[in-house]
Amino acid sequence: MSAARRMAAMLVACLWGVACATTEIVEAPPEVTELETGIRSFLREPLLGYEGNIPEQSRHELAGASAALARGQVEVARSRAETLLDIDPTLLPAAVLLAQTQLAAGKVEQAVDLLAKRLAARPAYTAGQLVYARAAERTGDAVAAYRAYRGIAALDDVAAERAAAVEDEAIAELSDRTAAAIDAGGLADAATALEILREWAPGDTAAVELGWRLARARGDTGAELAATRELVAAGNDSLDVLHRQAALELEAGDARRGLELYEQLAQRHPGNSEIATGLTAARFTWRIRLLPENVRKLFEASSLLRGDFAALTAWIVPGIRTGPAGSTVIVSDILEHPHRREIARLLNLGLMEPADAAVRRFGPNNYMRRGPALATLLRMPGRVGGGAACVGEEGGPAADDMDAVCEAALRCRLISEPAECRPERAISGPEAVEALRRTLHLIQ
Questions:
Q1: Would the pLDDT of 24 be above 80?
Q2: How far apart are CA 118 and CA 80, in angstroms?
Q3: In sequence order, what are the beta bridge partners of 356?
Q4: Least CB-packed of 24, 167, 185, 427 within 10 Å?
């Protein structure tokens, strides 16, 4: 081969090599995705609203990846976000950038799962909450979307606009969730949801009703009374609500108000036996609320003495302290007793008897047994009332005939079943008050 031909061959080979080298280093242009109309307003620069320090190189790489996403280069941005998270899994703005690429690609469930826990403690992180809220909205979770939008509404116009758009749906959905939690017995979850609902819709009638239901499910009388008052103030004047308020006022609130409500309900519903019973109980409750402090202290006594029982009876039953005195019974051991006047009234009316008539002793500091206590109560219809057929023989059964006393007490509904009689057991304050309350039905 001549020198000229060798030179030509070398030149061709060199040119081919250059061409091959050029082919190897040329990269295909990145794929560009046409972003959905309106999606760009939710794809903010990942550092927007982020409070925290990150390495300068990471900051530059985030800015470059965010710019690529804005150009529609979704895969480029996704790859760079994943690389940053491989280097530092705690880099929250990189997670936000990755969620933005998922939103852009329509993978909204993945975006929600990625950010839900990460953003829980950062309600004001604008870029993060905005993409999370939009993804949650796309999944149909109006509650999560509204919470996120609402948290940054004062910082971002798009968030404020979307918060207003989904507010009614979110409140309705949260109300349904709260009701379902109450029905299922998840009272802690219901309480958490209700707290949020009250923040979002203060004074909303549905929230008030749910608070009422939750308080009843919990057995929280005070909270139920407060919720019932709110319901009435909001215009709910149904019989059930007003009746419940009357009962709650007597139990835990304003007893006078409870009595007034029962009186009003009795006038409006004269044939309602439940209200009539409630009115009687209300009058009794109001009466005992007015008793002296030293008498009211006896209500909770684990066991009453004879002098204590006489005092309770004299103060609770109308006509004993103020009615005719009856015969005079003299006993010597009550002269220094604080309830001597009440004891004397019950003795003189024949409602109680001396513990030992032979030595004229009442025994005020002896325990009051249930049998003699019931015998005393059974005498009342004939002594201070108009009589009651259930008592049996005139004047009531003899105090020492315990079988007759227990039978009459059951007929007159002073006890609910024979086993409650227990005549030799000391009567407690609550038992005496309840028996006295039932006795009032026989004399009024």
A1: no
A2: 19
A3: 361
A4: 24
